Every structure is written in C-alpha cells, then in structure tokens.
C-alpha cells in the first residue's frame, strides 16, 4: 500500500495486481547494487518514493515517449504503519518546498504552531466534516507546546510524531490525535458533526465551565491518556455547602462503543451512591440542552416485536453503572484500633462476680413520678405508692378475678403462691448460688 499526497489530499493506493520495483540510484559502489535516494537509516514510514509512469506512443510512424511522476509517496507493508505514514505525508505537505525532494526527512524542518494548527483543523474537516475551533486548537496547542504556546511557537518533527507527549505517556502526540480521529470516524461521526461533543477541552477549563451551571450539567471530552482514542463525560453536582463536585467516568473506547452506542450509554447511565438508589446524573448537555433533546434522535430503537419466538425470556438492556469514588466515603468510620468484639480470656474462670455487701437493687429517686424507691425495704411498705402510680392498671386484691378470695387459699393445692410479701420466707443466698458454669465447654 502507498500513501500519496495531491494538493493537501491523501490518497491510499492498493497495488493488488502489481509489483513495485524500486530503481536504485546514487550507489555507493560497494556490494551488489546501491541504495535508493531515500533509503538508509530512515524508518520505512519516512522513506519517500516517486512513482513514474512511462508511455511509449507511436502514431503513423511518429514515435514519442510520455512520462509523468507522482509526488513523493510512502510505501508500507503492514496496517500498523498507517498512522506514521499519514503523519509523514501531512508534514511533507505542510513544509515540503520541493515536491521531488525524496530526502526531506533526512533533515525535516520545524513548523510554527500557526501553520500546524491550520493543517490539523483541515485534517479534521476533511476526515469528519467538522474543523476545530479556536478553543479546541488552544487546548491541543497547550498539550503539544505547553501553556505558553503562541502562533510563533515551533514544533519539531520528533516532537510531533516521536516523543511522548506529555512526558510520562507511552505514545506520541500524533498517535493520540490520530486515535481520536479514528474513534470519531467509526463511532461518533454524527454526534461530532452536530457539535454535541466538545472534545478537546482540558480538565481545568472543563471545571471552569461546569461550576457555573446547574447540577446535572455534563459535557463530553476526549481522554488525554488513552492511546487509541477514548471519550468520557464529566458532570457537576453540589454538596450541602453549595460547593461544586465534579465526576468523570472511565473513558469509553472502541471496545465499549462497538457494542453500546454513546447515546444509549448517556440515556441509560446510572450512578450508584451508597446511601441512594442508582440514578442517572446526566440531565443537561453543556450549556443547558436537556439530555433527551440533544441525544434523543440518536437513541437505538427497541425492537421488542422481533422477540415473537422468545417471549419466555425477559427483555434486557445493557447499561453503564458507576459507583461512588473511593475517596468519597459515606459510611460510618470506626476506630480500627479498638476491638469491636468483646475479648474473652479462655484461661480465666467464667464466674459471675457479685459484691454481697452492696445492695443489689435499683435505686430510684422517690421525688420523681416513677416507681417508688426499693432499697432493702419490704415491698409491702411501698404497695400503696405503687397502686397510686399505676392507678386503674392495678386491681384491688378482692376485685382481681384471677386471685382467690380471702379464706380460699387454704383449700388450694399450693396456697403459698398467694401469700403476701410479708408472709414469704426470707431468701438466703451464699457464694455457691452465684457460681456460673461456662456454657461453651463440652
């Protein structure tokens, strides 16, 4: 496959029935044959080739030869080389002064941000039918050149296509940008064309925009840390103090969007908070468009009528659910150092200890409107007070239908059960009565 550039257009050519044979030139005189003009230490995606077409023409004895050549092309043999080859064509189109210069990448010139931003906007316009506005280009420029980017800032070929950006990532700036282009073309084209995706916005500016909006306002932006393109949504909520809180979901990539379109994710998204039932927190697309008004035309239709032969199954729908972040606890915090279960020493004797010298009855203030004080005093001395407090809830002994009348106790088998407290024998206890046997032993 070859990539050829014609007036800021990139055309992939597939040579299915032809064999490309490179003409060697500028030989070194060593070995068998020489190297091509662009061959050497350059990567294959930076080697520029020219395809020449020759026609021998003969008409009524007149012979002539017609010849024309292409602009430089990049020839690749594997699909994973497409992105780098595309970058080479863009850079050559932007800065190549001589269309026949096959050694361009032996010393590629740097580009100004003013020139590169124009080419990048054109690239999005050509591939997705929507260019980049000034705010989006500003974010891209800051990612590539830093926060102090200006139109005169310079970007080298290595910085654009080879160095990791920002330092610490495992991929280059162009790899990140080309991954987003592919994601848009495959899964987000209509949403991107209708300006439903803000796309290129930094986290700092994202929060600046959302903190002025009502709760449930969200926007869609491209992930800055996903190699092959990812999109996430961020929304704002307000706590009890009125301070804004921002939430972002893990970016959706081609893997998720292949099975579940982004509009359906937004419609069915659920945020699970521990103290509440799951709910959809996405209500208004920034700045203030109701969710269903913005994405309703792109929701998938539910074809329930096609389930005529499988009515024994319940219809199901795949939704995305997020739980509250780990740094937002909503549960009671306990002291991990304190024991939550009483400790029992298995070697100690499990005997209930009672101080026989202290009174073991409840002490109650007699001035309060409650049960009279009972402290080593015969219960009969307090019966009047108990009766006065309980009023109608206590019956007179003679009026209680469940008690025998005076004089009938002797006729019963157990007359002691109905003796008054002052008639009961004194209860004598010693230490042996308070011995407690361990019930856990076999």
Question: Can you lay out the helices and strands and say which pair or pack?
Answer:
Elements: E1 2-5, E2 10-13, E3 52-59, E4 62-69, E5 73-75, H1 82-95, E6 111-112, H2 113-128, H3 134-145, E7 154-155, H4 157-161, H5 173-193, H6 203-210, E8 217-222, E9 231-238, E10 244-248, H7 254-257, H8 262-268, E11 270-272, E12 284-285, E13 289-290, H9 291-295, E14 321-323, H10 383-390
Parallel strand pairs: 8-12, 11-14
Antiparallel strand pairs: 1-2, 1-5, 3-4, 6-7, 8-9, 9-10, 12-13
Task: Explain the overall architecture.
This protein is an alpha+beta fold. The protein is built from 10 helices and 14 strands.
Biggest sheet layout: 5 strands, mixed
Count of DSSP strands: 14
Class by alpha and beta content: alpha+beta
Question: What coarse outline follows from CA principal-axis ratios?
Answer: elongated
> Within the largest sheet, what's the order of strands?
10-9-8-12-13
Measured by DSSP, the beta-strand proportion falls in 5-15%
Euclidean distance between termini CA atoms:
84 Å
Order of helices and strands: EEEEEHEHHEHHHEEEHHEEEHEH
Helical coverage, percent range: 10-25%
- Number of helical runs? 10
Can you tell me the residue ranges where pLDDT is under 50 for at least 5 consecutive residues?
Answer: 4-9, 27-39, 303-311, 325-342, 370-374
Mean pLDDT: 75
Radius of gyration: 43 Å
């Amino acid at each position: 496959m070859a990539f050829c550039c014609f007036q800021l257009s990139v055309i992939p050519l597939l040579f299915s029935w032809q064999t490309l044979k490179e003409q060697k030139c500028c030989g070194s005189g060593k070995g068998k044959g020489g190297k091509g003009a662009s061959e050497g230490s350059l990567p294959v995606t930076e080697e520029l080739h020219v395809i020449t077409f020759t026609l021998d023409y003969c008409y009524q004895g007149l012979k002539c030869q017609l010849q024309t050549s292409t602009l430089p092309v990049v020839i690749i043999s594997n699909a994973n080389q497409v992105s780098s080859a595309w970058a080479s064509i863009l850079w050559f189109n932007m800065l190549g002064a001589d269309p026949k210069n096959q050694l361009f990448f032996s010393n590629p010139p740097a580009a100004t941000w003013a020139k590169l931003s124009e080419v990048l906007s054109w690239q999005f316009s050509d591939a997705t039918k929507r260019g980049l506005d000034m705010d989006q280009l500003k974010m891209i420029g800051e990612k590539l050149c830093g926060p102090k980017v200006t139109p005169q800032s310079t970007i080298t070929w290595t910085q654009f296509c080879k160095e990791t950006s920002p330092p610490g990532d495992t991929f280059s700036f162009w790899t990140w940008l080309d991954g987003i282009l592919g994601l848009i073309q495959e899964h987000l084209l209509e949403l991107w064309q209708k300006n439903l995706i803000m796309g290129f916005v930094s986290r700092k500016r994202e929060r600046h925009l959302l903190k002025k909006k009502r709760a449930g306002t969200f926007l869609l932006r491209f992930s800055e840390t996903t190699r092959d393109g990812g999109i996430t949504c961020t929304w704002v909520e307000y706590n009890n103090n009125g301070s804004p809180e921002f939430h972002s979901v893990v970016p959706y990539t081609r893997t998720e969007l292949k099975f579940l379109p982004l509009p359906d994710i937004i419609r069915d998204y659920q945020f699970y908070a521990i103290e509440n039932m799951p709910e959809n927190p996405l209500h208004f697309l920034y700045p203030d468009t109701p969710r269903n008004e913005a994405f309703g035309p792109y929701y998938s239709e539910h074809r329930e009528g096609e389930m005529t032969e499988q009515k024994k199954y319940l219809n199901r729908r795949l939704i995305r659910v997020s739980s509250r972040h780990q740094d937002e606890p909503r549960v009671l915090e306990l002291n991990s150092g304190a024991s939550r279960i009483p400790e029992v020493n298995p070697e100690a004797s499990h005997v209930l200890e009672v101080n026989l010298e202290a009174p073991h009855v409840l002490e109650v203030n007699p001035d309060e409107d409650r049960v009279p004080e009972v402290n080593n005093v015969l219960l009969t001395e307090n019966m009047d007070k108990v009766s006065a407090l309980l009023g109608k809830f206590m019956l007179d002994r003679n009026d209680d239908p469940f008690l025998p009348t005076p004089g009938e106790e002797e006729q019963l088998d157990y007359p002691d059960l109905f003796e008054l407290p002052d008639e009961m024998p004194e209860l004598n206890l010693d230490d042996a009565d308070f011995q407690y046997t361990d019930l856990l032993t076999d």
